[in-house]
């Protein structure tokens, strides 16, 4: 293990590169072992029970807890040391988002504890230990990310690489476990709905892991069992966000950063009223559609078909608006000439890779639906709406990815010093030209004051000088008027600045609108509104089990894409 900063090239030295490779391989094997164990439990493999899976996850969480406690204790003892920070990692809004998801995850853990208490007679002790361990793990991990997500570790680098990568894949396995549990619940509901749509030729066998004993308190058991599945989407987002933040921390270990001023970009509501209004309309209507969909689907064949038609028409309208907004934003970028920031930035690189990688999940589902519509022999009326919906999903993600990736790579526009200085110009008849204090106090520096000069403004177009000798008032006034007339041409740069501000305002409104639209499109699949399950056409063409496998693999990535896009668009709005 290397202690201390080391040489300038330590981040790229051979031992450190080997440590990076070894730690990544350790994490991958850790994940694959857990993935196979999860899969074995899901398919009811002989000799594998849920207690084995939970025991493995509990062990991983305990190891991560020990490492985080060691890191926090070492950080407290060395708190006086100046440490490098990655200013792009662990943004405050991202920390606030993960904290919100963590709070809901703690509620989920409390529901699981209550569920275990009610069924304690026939459940394994690991099902009671797991939520307690997970709650402690959640609290400490959120605290760790709030305090150390920006750290660039330069000591004990080999050990820290293994600790961080262990944390990354522990969260990925917890995410996988949450996705599988939630998917099995959705699948059971989906199988029951297919009967109402008239697909009686599909064998309906419920995959149920329900306890074999009776609940001690029926009402509480019902609340806990139903509430757990409504809270899983937040738990899933929490773990994937935590794993991405920890991955950036892992990539930053041993990194040598250039020290430069990082401009803070706070979020402001000013100037995005139009985008927020349209976005909130989309969000409100989406929530209403989801509520109606969940109530109507599965009640009868007619109600199910109406629910699917309603969903497709709403989604087509929203996606068309999003495509239009994205195209307008890209056209504005084409009209501007601004260089791209190609500096090394692990957080930004990961954002771009996640956008494209997770979009592939919904692209896979969309191409499957398009192929099913083309190949199917019978086409119920509601299935035709699936064709434009699937095509728009592909196009919208393509356009949105281009917009977001270009936005996060564009260099922030630097405000011209002339614009900062040009605040208030007051011309008083019969007196010298006075200049109100500017953003930088005085354009030409404080030295101008000492010489008795009022500083020149905009390349010397407007200039005042104190009158030490007694001069004629008329001559003085005429000079001032001449100076003001001469300066009129120099104010022409305001027109260009006005155009730039209008473009920025349009881009901010587009980013705000797309942010709320992505939140809106995250809600339906996260809470069980999944037409890929319910329309039944794909199951006929591809077969029930193959298509369900495809949906269960692709849907988590599609859900994460929307939340990650919303987070990226929030950053774009702050940066624009």
Automatic annotation (TrEMBL):
The keyword Transmembrane helix applies. GO terms for cellular component: plasma membrane. Keywords: Cell membrane, Hydrogen ion transport, Ion channel, Ion transport, Membrane, Transmembrane, Transmembrane helix, Transport. It is a multi-pass membrane protein. One of its GO terms (molecular function) is proton channel activity. This is OTOP1 protein. The keyword Cell membrane applies. It is found in: Cell membrane. One of its GO terms (biological process) is inner ear morphogenesis. It holds the Pfam family Otopetrin. InterPro entries: Otopetrin. Belongs to the otopetrin family. The chain crosses the membrane at residues 26-47, 53-72, 93-117, 129-146, 229-250, 271-295, 311-333, 354-379, 510-528, 540-561.
């Amino acid at each position: 293990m290397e202690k201390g900063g080391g040489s300038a090239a330590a981040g790229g030295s051979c031992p450190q590169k080997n440590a990076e490779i070894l730690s990544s391989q350790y994490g991958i094997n850790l994940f694959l072992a857990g993935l196979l164990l999860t899969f074995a439990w899901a398919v009811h493999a002989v000799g594998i029970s849920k207690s084995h899976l939970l025991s493995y996850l509990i062990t991983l969480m305990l190891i991560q807890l020990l490492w985080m406690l060691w890191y926090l204790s070492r950080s407290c003892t060395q708190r006086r040391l100046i440490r490098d920070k990655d200013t792009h990692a662990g943004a405050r809004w991202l920390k606030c988002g993960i904290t919100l998801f963590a709070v809901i995850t703690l509620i989920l853990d409390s529901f699981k504890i209550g569920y275990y208490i009610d069924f304690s007679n026939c459940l394994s002790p690991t099902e009671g230990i797991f939520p307690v361990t997970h709650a402690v793990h959640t609290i400490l991990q959120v605290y760790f990310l709030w305090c150390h997500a920006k750290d660039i570790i330069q000591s004990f680098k080999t050990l820290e690489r293994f600790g961080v990568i262990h944390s990354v894949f522990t969260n990925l396995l917890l995410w996988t476990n949450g996705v599988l549990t939630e998917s099995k619940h959705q699948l059971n509901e989906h199988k029951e709905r297919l009967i109402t749509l008239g697909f009686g030729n599909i064998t309906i066998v419920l995959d149920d892991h329900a306890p074999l004993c009776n609940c001690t308190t029926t009402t509480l058991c019902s609340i806990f069992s139903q509430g757990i599945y409504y809270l899983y989407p937040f738990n899933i987002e929490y773990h994937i966000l935590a794993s991405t933040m920890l991955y950036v921390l892992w990539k930053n270990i041993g990194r040598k950063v250039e020290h430069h001023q990082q401009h803070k970009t706070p979020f402001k509501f000013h100037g995005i009223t139009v985008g927020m209004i349209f976005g909130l309309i989309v969000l409100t209507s989406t929530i209403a559609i989801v509520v109606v969909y969940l109530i109507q689907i599965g009640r009868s064949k007619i109600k199910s078909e109406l629910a699917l038609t309603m969903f497709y028409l709403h989604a087509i309208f929203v996606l068309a608006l999003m495509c239009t907004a994205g195209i307008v934003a890209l056209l504005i970028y084409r009209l501007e000439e601004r260089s791209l920031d190609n500096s090394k930035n692990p957080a930004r690189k990961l954002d771009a890779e996640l956008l494209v990688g997770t979009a592939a999940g919904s692209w896979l589902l969309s191409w499957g639906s398009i192929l099913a519509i083309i190949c199917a022999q019978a086409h119920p009326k509601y299935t035709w709406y699936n064709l434009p919906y699937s095509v728009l999903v592909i196009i919208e993600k393509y356009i949105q990815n281009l917009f977001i990736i270009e936005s996060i790579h564009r260099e922030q526009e630097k405000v011209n010093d002339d614009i900062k200085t040009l605040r208030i110009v007051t011309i008083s008849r019969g007196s010298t030209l006075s200049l109100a204090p500017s953003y930088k106090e005085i354009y030409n520096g404080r030295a101008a004051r000492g010489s008795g000069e009022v500083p020149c403004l905009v390349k010397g177009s407007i200039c005042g000088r104190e009158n030490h000798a007694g001069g004629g008032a008329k001559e003085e006034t005429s000079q001032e008027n001449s100076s003001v007339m001469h300066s009129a041409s120099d104010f022409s740069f305001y027109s260009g600045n006005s155009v730039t501000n209008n473009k920025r305002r349009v881009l901010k409104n587009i980013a705000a609108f797309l942010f709320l639209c992505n939140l809106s499109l995250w809600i339906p699949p996260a809470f069980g509104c999944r037409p890929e399950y319910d329309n039944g056409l794909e199951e006929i063409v591809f077969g029930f089990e193959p298509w369900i496998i495809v949906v269960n693999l692709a849907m988590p990535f599609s859900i994460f894409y929307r939340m990650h896009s919303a987070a990226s668009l929030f950053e774009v709005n702050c940066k624009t």
